[in-house]
Amino acid sequence: MKVGVVYAVAPQPLLLTCQVEEGSTVAQAIERSGLLRYCPEIDLKKQKVGVFGKFVKLDSCLKEGDRVEIYQRITRVLDEDDDDDDD
């Protein structure tokens, strides 16, 4: 069955399609797509994944046409004058 794997990386998201066997998991599709070779910074132990915008686990089974999404970690960098104190 055909599935897509997408990772939103600047300047343009990567979208790869691959063929996986019926009953394949999210982790298997990510591996099969080859995306981890292009984006070695991806850490599936820390980053969340989803299918069509809904969080799923790596061992979730896929269906024909699913789009696996790997979400970037969101971090906030504070400026020196941007603190949480309201003095």
TrEMBL record:
InterPro entries named among the record's database cross-references: Mopterin_synth/thiamin_S_b, RnfH, RnfH_sf
Family matches, as Pfam families: Ub-RnfH
Family: Belongs to the UPF0125 (RnfH) family.
Full protein name: UPF0125 protein SAMN05216229_11024
Organism from which the protein derives: Geopseudomonas sagittaria
